[in-house]
Design goal:
Blueprint lengths: L14 H5 L2 E6 L4 H8 L9 E4 L2 E4 L8 E12 L3 H11 L3 E3 L5 H9 L21 E7 L2 E5 L25 H11 L8 E5 L5 H8 L3 E6 L5 H4 L4 E5 L7 H4 L6 E6 L5 H13 L3 E9 L6 H8 L4 E4 L7 E6 L2
Parallel strand pairs: 5-6, 8-9, 8-11, 9-10, 11-12
Antiparallel strand pairs: 1-3, 1-4, 2-3, 4-7, 6-7, 12-14, 13-14
The protein binds S-adenosylmethionine.
S-adenosylmethionine binds next to helix 6 and strand 9.
């Protein structure tokens, strides 16, 4: 129980929580302030909200990039004893994950009375778990807040992979693994991928390992063994120097534009807009690096690109991942 979140001692629960279902937004670790700014709950009249540890409960449901998991149908559940609490949860569904804000010992005892949730690490290339995983927290000794349906099938939205520490040249590959796993789609053998900001080569390694052709661009070199992978071509230069009308021109549409470039989100938005306008690329997976102050307006502009998604991956730091899959 560390971090920068506000600690709210139990008080009278607001009527909208007592009377029906509501939404819980679990902040990505360390990013509660970003989540609150994104939800903009103070500004919207008539919407109740309550911050409980690193969870923001609100009566309204909406997409939220800075939430690592969204509890979609949260409600109160009486739990006068540990056994009764566990029984009430089991009657709803099998799989539950405890997210204690307080009363951690009681939450652990309650978890012991629930069926075990698989602790297996995700293998890249295999689909994300399909079994629903609910989340709960204890409000007080006799009250649970529980949601059977959550946005993520992973405990607290954190994806733990069976890692490949030997072949991958940097840990950045985990971001692309996570994005592709959550999106449920992978580049296919032979597809053309641009990897902008590719050095030392983690993303290029992922794409080339899938059999895709990779045109990698960075001001720095790739690790030689990555540059030598079949299908990989590296160009020393700036990702902003590529002209989509030429690089992805007629008959040469790029299948995937991947960017992990260290650059301001506003600059990346200009680049993506040019590629979209030129209809030069089908799918996009881009890291929005929030250097310094979080640029909420630009993140919102990315989120408004039709059909796209902005998410905080569990392998993202002070950054988000924007994806458009078509
Ligand atoms: C986080 S690293 C990328 C890690 C890489 N995705 C991997 O998996 O190994 C960010 C990279 O962006 C590159 N970069 C920054 N500005 C760039 C630009 N304008 N064009 C191309 N690359 C750029 C940096 O040289 C750096 O290698």
């Amino acid at each position: 129980m560390t971090g920068d979140w506000l600690y709210t001692l139990p008080m009278a629960l607001p009527a909208w929580m007592r009377e029906g279902s509501f939404t819980g937004y679990l902040a990505a670790p360390g990013f509660l302030a970003e989540l609150l700014a994104e939800l903009d709950l103070e500004g919207s009249a008539g919407t109740g909200h309550l911050v409980y540890g690193d969870i923001v409960f609100a009566c309204k449901a909406r997409a939220a990039a800075w939430a690592q998991n969204i509890w979609l149908d949260a409600r109160l559940l009486p739990a006068p004893s540990i056994g009764q609490g566990a029984k009430a949860l089991r009657e709803i569904q099998r799989n539950w994950w405890a997210h204690p804000v307080r009363l951690a010992r009681r939450a652990a005892l309650l978890t012991e009375k629930l069926p075990k949730v698989s602790a297996r690490a995700q293998v890249f290339g295999q689909p994300a778990p399909s079994a629903p995983l609910g989340s709960f927290t204890l409000w007080d000794e006799a009250t649970l807040i529980a949601a059977a349906t959550c946005s993520s099938p992973y405990p607290d939205g954190a994806v733990r992979f069976e890692e490949d520490r030997e072949s991958a040249p940097s840990r950045a590959y985990l971001k692309l693994w996570e994005a592709l796993t959550l999106l449920g789609v992978m580049p296919r053998p032979g597809e053309l991928c641009l990897d902008l900001g590719s050095s030392p080569g983690g993303w290029t390694w992922v794409l080339a390992s899938l059999g895709a052709r990779v045109f990698s661009v960075d001001k720095a070199e790739l690790e030689p063994r990555i540059a030598a992978m079949p299908g990989v071509e590296h160009c020393l230069g700036s990702g902003f120097g590529l002209d989509p009308k030429i690089a992805g021109g007629p008959g040469a549409q790029v299948d995937w534009l991947c960017s992990d470039m260290a650059c301001y989100p506003a600059r990346l938005l200009e680049l993506v807009s040019r590629w979209l306008e030129a209809d030069a690329c089908r799918n996009f997976v881009c890291t929005l690096k929030c250097q310094g102050e979080t640029d909420h307006a630009t993140i919102q502009a990315f989120a408004e690109i039709p059909g796209s998604k902005v998410m905080h991956l569990s392998h993202n730091k002070h950054e988000l991942t924007w994806a458009l899959i078509r």
